[in-house]
Amino acid sequence: MLPLLSHQQTLEPVYLAYLDALEQSEYSGDIDKRYSARLVQATDNSVYQFLPQAVLYPKNQQDIQIALTLATTDAFRSVTFSARGGGTGTNGQSLTHGLILDVSRYMNRVLEVNAEQGWVRVEAGVVKDALNDALRPHGFFFSPDLSTSNRATIGGMINTDASGAGSLVYGKTSDHVLALRSVLIDGSVLDTHPLDAGLLCNPDNISDNPLGQKLISAVAAVCREKRTQIENQFPKLNRFLTGYDLKHVWNDNLTQFDLSRILTGSEGTLAVITEAKLNLTPLPTERAMVNIKYDSFQSALRHAPSLVAARATVVETVDSKVLNLAREDIVWHSVSDLIQEMPGKVIDGLNMVEFAGDTVEVEQKLASLEAVLTEQISKGECGVLGYQVTQDKPSIEKIYGMRKKAVGLLGATKGRRKPIAFAEDTAVPPEKLADYIMEFRAVLDGHNLQYGMFGHVDAGVLHVRPALDMCDVEDEKLLRVISDQVAALTLKYGGLMWGEHGKGVRGEYGPSVFGDELYGVLQDIKGLFDPDNRLNPGKLVAPKHTGALYYDIDSAKRGKFDRQIPIEVRDAFPDVMNCNGNGLCFNYSSYSPMCPSFKVTGDRVQSPKGRAGLMREWLRLLEAEGVDVNALAKAKPLGLLQRVQNTLNAQRDYDYSHEVMESLKGCLACKACSGQCPVKVDVPKFRAQFFNIYYQRYLRPAKDYLVAGIEDSLPLMAAAPRLTNFAAQNPLSQWVIKKAIGYVDAPALSVPTLKQRLDGHASRGYDLAALQAIPEEARSQFVLVVQDPFNSFYDSGLVLRFIQLIEKLGFKPVLLPYKPNGKPTHIKGFLDKFAKTAQSSADFLNQVHKLGMPMVGIDPALVLCYRDEYREVLGANRGHFEVKLANEWLLNVIKDLPAKAPQDKQYTWFSHCTESTAKPNTANEWTKIFAHFGAKLTAVNLGCCGMAGTYGHEAENLERSKALFEMSWQQTLAKIEQPQVLVSGYSCRTQVKRFAGYKPKHPLEALLELANI
Which parts of 151-256 fold into alpha helices (H)? Predict the structure, then answer.
């Protein structure tokens, strides 16, 4: 039996009292004390897990001031804070056991763009790519780049002094900070910007904040006094060592001082940055990329310095492991033509070289490099196998998209050991990189570890992620050994262990880099800003006399908790366990299909990463209660009366399972996560597993039975469609259904029905024996149409037109008998029923499969269910039947059909979420098909329409469903003439009809029109 689960992680009394006082103040932001919210913020993109006391979401700077001012009272002086943005840190940068100040939910505005002077003013929570979206119309971009740019915030970039591709030309974040506004630990506001040295003589000239005056004067004095030591001690690198930038607070001739340089890279340990003024880079007029292929990764590394010498803007490299993982990912379809295989040769390294600038300059550099590469290939030099050039900007962005996804792709490595971040951003002088990496590889090879490598060879930064199993205690110990070895190795080569992603829990290595004297200066600076060590305590440095750093390499890791889950349970929930926290599901763009529930709520609990984290804790708590989860999944529900009683007591009795349910029921089951996530986390899969167990203890809502039974009941309702529609579509019935069941806007059955439309048609009257009697050579002329519940019963006209199209193309359609697919039962977690339905349908389809005739279905979600959920649930019992999507079948058919002459017909195709993520090449397929029919088809990239099967029909989801439609679909549809709109998913067409007021055509209907011209 599923027991009541309690997490025992109650808030400390001082934090409870503080949060109560904060709620009574003028603070206007959100305060989230839910265990689920705390768990989601307990991890980032690292191996660490620190549970915070609560999460604050300030709406503005005043909220942060109120929160920090309140904490200055004696009663709350032990309350600590850590500012957080996108949560993409790779070493626990913003993790804390205190309070999280998450600025990403509300403080994410672009406040001012000054194109004339080339600067922008932003709030700290704005996402980097969102900022560039706002800047693009002005001809500028914020140039420091990073792989997590679609979810990383500017505040996070400033706090870690982030940089990435192109940093040799574009610099680091600190190189672009013109001014900062921050809230200090006492709640006061400090504005920082460059100051002439002469002003420092009079404190009143430098700030109207008394604490700020003290800080500026003290830091200026000590950094001037220690100038010689700083120059001698700090590594000569393109990258900056976070915590703290003593070197650049003064300019080279000591005429100008800027405290912002101390705050940049301080990882939230000195102040809470709320606003930034940043300088901008003009967008280049011309870009060109050369993808150079090598016989080994070492060849790529050793060739890189000559590429830098060619004055490239960017030189990025990836090894064969990353390339091979990319080939298996959804991202490869977009770059396969740009990184073509070489017959008879193996590509074991790749350098991506970009030139950006004015046209003449780029063309000259490109021609020069091509000449050199061509000569090297002809002579067999430098391990260069070949190269490809692209000057198409969208294609260049696709290459970078693949490179940016590399960090997540490594998490998809098979086996229990996964490449993890802990020594992944080392930096050494670029000329020493190849030798350094050879030693680095020797260290890892000495421990018999697998690893992947990629990074910015132009800046001497290479990302290396050794594969370890953090559930294995011995591997956790090995992490410490390797960390120490790598820290020593980087020092040997005059480099840094933390060259790009911030220091986080690696502060213990600070003294060996800075030296005792300068490390003492850092401690003094921390003491000036935060004497009681309350801002992100335990990171970088601590004030003198407050003890050792609270966090280090050995701090609590996710593996400590995950290893409490038995291996057999971990194996039963692989998607839950494999989430590595890369956070791609936090993609800001409303035009990305990735996780619509997070986009519409802004709540990280409502994300794949959040859901996976909550499920891991659920599995851990069940094990702590002695419950065998695998046995529980096969158990029968409690009796009806017991489930009624448990449901009635749900408001009284805390059960952690309710928090998990609250997160999972918000999922649209669109399966975008299973395709978009680098490690293929499939939330709908474990959601169904959880529902199946949860409802053994509690009552299911009535709408679940309605959805789960729809496939079985449709044939009965279609026997009298007009009567059914009258009974269900009148206002009184709709009101009753909404109030009693929680279901709204249910579509009407098709009239006439499919059976009536095809009355007397040759495609009707399926007869297996007759089909078996058809000679083998004649069977290729037949097409078997596989029915789905939605199109056959709610859009029968589409099925008819598909059959007519098949005939028009010279084939003989046969409508197979309707068999329930089971997808609705799976979505709602009726796993036993789904297994029976799936086996029944699979048995039938395998029988038909033996005919050797193509089977084709119309709705993407249902067809893809045969491939995914059927294989998952039935295993080998699924058989080998294949149901093609209409576009897959047509793409093969048109090879033998004459192309039609070009016509003045244009269409725009809107894809289904499941389709576009599971089969990313679908847009290209439809485009080729329409071109064959003489028409032009344009595909648009959009987010979720908000319907997702039956999600949008559930009353509790109605507002979110509408909001999702408005995010990207509504405005895009408004720009296109209705006859040109084509939508392949049934649920998407239903949503357009509901909120746009018209029913768009399916691509098949447009093709039939073209075929009849």
Answer: 154-160, 167-170, 203-206, 210-225, 227-233
Q: Give the confidence band of 242 by pLDDT, cuts at 50, 70, 90.
A: low
Locate 559 and state its tokens: 């593996």
Q: Which residues contact 52 (CB under 8 A, 6 or more apart)?
A: 38, 41, 42, 82, 95, 96, 97, 98, 99, 100
Nearest to 276 by CA among 150, 192, 206, 164: 192
Element (H, E) at 272: strand 272-279
**Token digits of residue 141:** 């971009």
CA-closest candidate to residue 186, choices 364, 324, 66, 345: 66
The candidate with the shortest Cα–Cα distance to 26, out of 62, 74, 71, 54, is 62
Question: Do the Cβ atoms of 656 and 35 come closer than 8 Å?
Answer: yes
Antiparallel, parallel or unpaired: β 936-940 and 906-910: parallel
As a whole number of angstroms, the distance between CA 747 and CA 236 comes to 67
- Rounded Cα gap, residues 274 and 268, in angstroms: 11
- In angstroms, the CA 984 to CA 332 distance is 23
Stretch 770-790: mean pLDDT:
94
Residue 285 DSSP symbol: S
Mean pLDDT of 232-242: 71
Q: How many other CB atoms are there within 10 angstroms of residue 100's CB atom?
A: 24
The span from the CA of 821 to the CA of 839, in Å, is 10
Please list, in sequence order, all residues whose beta carbon lies within 8 angstroms of the beta carbon of residue 405, skipping any fewer than 6 positions away.
147, 326, 329, 331, 584, 678
**Token pair listed for 957:** 């989801």
Separation CA 349–CA 366 (nearest Å):
21
Please report, as a single letter, which amino acid is at residue 280: L
> What tens digit of pLDDT does each residue of 350-384 get?
999 999 999 999 999 999 999 999 999 999 999 99
Query: Three-state SS for 105?
Result: coil
E-strand ranges in 889-941 read 906-910, 936-940
Write phi, then psi, for 964 (nearest 5 degrees): -65, -40
Under a CB-based contact definition with an 8 Å cutoff, are residues 146 and 152 in contact? Answer: yes
> Could you tell me which of 99, 78, 50, 40 has the C-alpha nearest to residue 552?
50
Q: β-pairing, 30-32 with 119-123?
A: unpaired
d(CA 503, CA 506): 5
Token pair of 117, please? 């002077």
**pLDDT tens-digit readout, 15-72:** 999 999 999 999 999 999 999 999 999 999 999 999 999 999 999 999 999 999 999 9
pLDDT grade for 239, boundaries at 50, 70 and 90 = low
Q: What pairs with residue 315 in β-bridges?
A: 353
What is the Cα–Cα distance from 597 to 595, expressed in whole angstroms?
A: 5
pLDDT level of residue 212 (50, 70, 90 thresholds): very high
In angstroms, the Cα distances linking 791 to 378, 547, 896 are 59, 68, 28
Residue 235 has pLDDT above 80, yes or no: no
pLDDT band, very low/low/confident/very high, at 884 (cuts 50, 70, 90): very high
Helix (H, G, I), strand (E, B) or coil at 809: coil
Which residues lie across from 256 on neighbouring strands?
196
Interior angle at CA 258, CA 255 and CA 264, nearest 5: 145
Measured CA distances, 694 to 28, 594, 926 (Å): 36, 26, 41
Residue 407 pLDDT level (bands cut at 50, 70, 90): low
Rounded to an integer, what is the distance from CA 605 to the centroid of its chain? 14
734 burial (CB, 10 Å; 0-12 / 13-18 / 19+) is middle
- Residue whose C-alpha is closest to residue 73's, from 182, 186, 160: 186
DSSP letter assigned to residue 949 = T
Order of all β-strands in the sheet with 812-815:
812-815, 782-786, 855-857, 883-885
Three-class SS state of 106 = coil
Give the integer Cα–Cα distance in Å for 934 and 201. Answer: 77
Which structure tokens are listed for 445?
């090879």
Q: Which residue in the block uniquely carries the two structure tokens 């033996």?
A: 850
